[in-house]
Amino acid sequence: MKYKFNKMTKSLVVILALGTVLQLGSVLAKNAWTDQKTTVNTNKTFQNAATLSLSQTALDQIKEADGATYARNLANYESMVKTLQVDEKFQKELDRLAAAGSSLPDLLIAYEFLYQNYGKMQDLEQLALERSRGNDWETVMKQYHSSHKAFVPRAFGGDELEQWMSNPKLSSDDIMIADTLSFVSGAAMEDLLKEKLEANKGWQEISASLDILNGSLSLPRLQITKEQLSKYVQKGKFTEQQVAEAFVLAQKLGLTPESVITKKKAGTSDEAIMAKAYTDKYN
After folding, report:
1. Cβ–Cβ under 8 Å, residues 84 and 115
2. What is the pLDDT of residues 142-163, one digit of tens each?
3. CB of 80 within 8 A of CB of 90?
4. Is residue 28 pLDDT above 90, yes or no?
5. Phi/psi of residue 125, nearest 5 degrees
6. Taking the complete model, does pTM exceed 0.85, yes or no?
């Protein structure tokens, strides 16, 4: 993906398509997360979690796995469900896997990783299984990326795109989201747009019907100035494209661009950066 600068603002607005590190997904609002160092009353957490489709069997398994972090794990679960607007269908799958003995922190890491990649519900169990076999998250994430094709936006014909854009009920984001869901699911993009328009369905409902975890209503954007890009470019070593990708990855993970750029320049893989960030968040 190549970037072009707005001549008026000399800034770059990155609109992300999925399937690559450039896909931002939803950025978790810092004030929506519970301080993980705070002691939470177990009974209160139990009541909150119960309203979020966690069965007693799952709760017992979570507590047995690590009673010392029980309250923190449930607080993380509740925050993720609310922040990522996890559909009830996917909550039930998380409950099933937790009740069967999968680590809750591992499930949360797997869920957010798949959410950012427009992954499917069926992949949750596979990622949890790979972790139970002793594979580290960097390896698990690399395996996922190697077995799933990166999203490639379709080439729209001029008349086709103009036809969709002329519909006042559709935004450019709707068209890009439909294109992404079509790529992941195999469903025709035209059918997805018609389903949204004629059946008056939202993207969360449509995504859930396709078992796709990400049901965002819009695509995130990130503005980067020419000066910001130039600051980190190293001729022949670190390009503008790589700087832009680092900014996007940083925003997706809630990290500073500087920290991500430093790691990438040192040769750290994107998956290793993601694995560290998600592990710090959920463990």
Report:
1. yes
2. 999 999 999 988 888 878 888 8
3. no
4. no
5. -65, -40
6. no
